[in-house]
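Support request, please re-run this one:
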Amino acid sequence: MSNVYFQSIDSYSKTAEINATAVKLLQLIEKEENVALNTFIPLKVHLGEKGNTTFIEPKNFNGIIDYLTEKNIRTAFVETNVLYKGQRNTNEKHMKVAEEHGFTRIPVIIADGEAGEDYEVVEIDKKHFKECKIAKAVAKESQIIVLSHFKGHMLAGFGGAIKQLAMGCASKGGKLAQHANSIPKISRSKCTACKACAAKCPESAIIVGKKAEIDKNKCVGCASCMAVCKNNAIKNSWLASLTKAFNERMAEYAYAAAKGKRNIYINFAFNITRGCDCEGHSMKPIARDIGIFASTDPVAVDQACLDILERNEGKRVLKRGRRTLEYAADIGLGSRKYQLVEL
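Re-run finished. Output below.
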């Protein structure tokens, strides 16, 4: 059974209280869980898609940054590029969004490189994956503070610490593998045979004649081709993401991202929307603000968030995604049983 530390805060507008509480929870983790802090600790965050207004703003992380600075601990925001077409699928655009959304106090590291090519293979030997492609700047660290916005998600059902590990720490190829399979598809109607994809492919798996074609025997699923296609002609299928297998694949990638690390997980349960911060438009919250949760166990902290949400609202608000927690516990990522320590 894991400890989950919790402080109720009834409004996202209470920035000073949010900052003070986050520091208090971090100190509790250090003391009660006997967690020593490294000399450099990245802060895994979600920078929010351009147009989104309900992501957790960086002003709420100032307390943690101040605390680390006081202890002479270096830090940086870390994130990965996305698969879909938007404003965060290349380094240049992603960094522009980071600046627009105020993530400027400390450096921002895009952990998997310009086109998802910077990753390390982490062996896990599970049901869906024997190995996973984890962004290099994440994989090389032995400790990360994972700062997650707890809210809904169109495909996963909900997003919290596990999703921050799974999708948030995977390279583009790792994201592709979780959503469907490792082989993207080329739309012949959109392809202009510009050869940009072939030039970027590290395995020479793309042949360009009248149209581009992918050699499935050579493709390693890095998704570099998807990143450079200006015609939006290379995609994956999202249909496979509507199955329980998707939730299991996500849990396995979270396991890989956390493997061998002494992480700290802090969930911010504010602005609880039906959709994710990846959606580039404004959304209305579907539940009341709850507060902040912290643990060394990503499964327990997400389970606690769901439980308190349902307790407060008197009903199941986020109806999908429980399979992620069940399977994550089964493979040893963490425990669904926890002791809630309320401040």
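The CA atoms of residues 168 and 261 lie 16 Å apart. The chain has a mean pLDDT of 92.
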